[in-house]
Amino acid sequence: KNFAAEPHLQKENKELKTMHRACLNNKANAALKMDQWQNALRASEDALRIKQDDEKALFRKAQALEGLGRTEEALEVLDEVAQIAEDMDEDFKEAVLSDVRERQEAIKETEHRAAKDYQHLFKKMGDKKVFGGGRFLPDGTSPPPALTPAQEAKMKLQKEKQEYLEAKAQHERIQRLKDGKPAFEPREPLLPTANTPPLSQSRALQRSRTVTAAQAEQLLGELLEAYSSESFQRKVHTHAKDAVFEYVPFLKRLKPTAFEVQESVLTKWGFDPSEEGLHEMFLCLHDHTMRNRRLKELAEESTKMLLGGEDGMWGMESD
């Protein structure tokens, strides 16, 4: 749906359009990850109706077209992205052009392989008399249709990529076990909290103190109160808008702002007012939130407010 404020609220309407476009881009990105090419194409085209020169929407449209096998159209769209990139700042321009070149080369390589596979397939079909007397099976039915060259090429690439990734993962697991490490390396959270602390530091960090369950509840309550303040929420929502509701850029803006309110809590509770002290506090809290459901829910509520609540970036971690 398209939501709009009153016509005279021009600034609000502009922000709504920006948010709507960001949501459509996120939708297209999610569809691409699930190989839902048609949905990705539809979402990216909807975003382009709002802003015709949105390079992110154009790039995702090209990816969707590539997935649909419409490679010529995909290359044309990539050319549009390259033209738009020429007017960008040098660093951002190079990053965009690098992505464009990568996709262009991949498409051309796929087309080249498809052409060779098509010639080979056509020859085999001729040898087997698919177009002559051998075109029917003994029971009188036709053999199943052969895959198109593009499908053949795609399946081959997918198989090669899958085999490579499996071999790489197996090698890394074996190497980690040889080094006396767990087979799988824990994934660090983008934003450490009481429920998702920095796991890599859980063993290496020398703790200066511990907290009881009652103290953990009080500490979480103070964090929740600090995050819920009107001034903090206003800053968080501003960061979300500035980052066009993209999660990772939003976190980069949020962390220093969050530390402004976290610092006083750290000092009060005897933790070092630093990033290391913050991680130590979350590890101490995690000792209790991982066992106590009520404290876990309280920690979840504080994280929710840290991200701006339901009107902010809460629930958008997977975008």
TrEMBL record:
Keywords assigned by UniProt, alphabetized: Coiled coil
Q: Biased-composition ranges for Basic and acidic residues?
A: 178-188
Q: What is this protein called?
A: Protein C10
Ranges where the record places region Disordered: 178-202
- The reply to whether Coiled coil figures as a keyword in the UniProt entry is yes
Q: Name one Pfam family in it.
A: P_C10
Residues forming coiled coils: 150-177
Q: Where is this chain compositionally biased, Polar residues type?
A: 193-202
Q: Per its UniProt record, what PANTHER family does this chain match?
A: PEPTIDYLPROLYL ISOMERASE (PTHR46512)
